Amino acid sequence: MKKIYLHPLPIRIWHWVNALSFLMLIFTGLQIRYRDMMRVMSFETSVDVHNIFGFVLIFNFFIWLLYYVISGKLKIYIPALSPRKFIEGCIRQAIYYGYGIFRGEPNPHHSTPDNKFNPMQQMAYLNIMAMFLPLQLLTGLMMWDIKGFSSWITLAGGIKIVDTVHVLIFLFFSSFLFVHIYLATLGHTATAHIKAMFTGFEEEDEHSH
Predict the structure, then answer these.
(1) I need a labelling partner for 146 at 20 to 30 A (CA). Which of 27, 166, 190, 196 fits?
(2) Under a CB-based contact definition with an 8 Å cutoff, are residues 21 and 60 in contact?
């Protein structure tokens, strides 16, 4: 196996802070939504903890954005400009995930520091980081201070619309978490990708190209 330094230290720290924040937000969000069914902590404590990790996630998002803008590596999230090339790449990757991986075929995408994500990952992560996460943070801010953001809430269609969007994106992220963990086990061993998010080094078969 050869080692590729794929995950710089700032990205690894960002990733695990993000993971912890998401887990705490999902847990406390369920506590707030179902306060009569889940009594692990008080409603007031759930709200306080939810708000704290909400602001941690906001801060972490801007750290991510600043790092990728300054490093010039934001392009790794941008799919190929050629629609045909992008679609062909998605089809190859989908066939691998749905069929090839079960036959022991090699992954058609080989990650490098400048070409980290396969086309399907690019599409997913671009939508998450450019649309779903900012929208979740924004709706969360609105509900954190309804009075202060009253004009924004009115512009969005009212607090029920804001709350519904926040909950729907919460459901999306909760579902995505399971998909993300599953895909993280699809390295040459079940823990290879997870280990790489601690060490920074991905391992790849030298003869896989």
Answers:
(1) 27
(2) yes
Whole-angstrom Cα distance, residue 202 to residue 193?
A: 7
Cα separation of the two ends of the chain: 12
Arch. (CATH architecture) of 2-80+110-204: Up-down Bundle (1.20)
> Would the pTM of this model clear 0.90, i.e. be above it?
no
Phi, psi of 112 (to 5 degrees): -135, 165
Interatomic CA distance for residues 117 and 44, integer angstroms: 41
Q: Where are the alpha helices (DSSP H) in the chain?
A: 9-33, 43-71, 83-98, 119-127, 133-144, 150-156, 159-184, 192-199
Provide the residue ranges of all domains of the chain, joining segments of one domain with +: 2-80+110-204
The alpha carbon dihedral of 154, 147, 33, 166 has a sign of positive
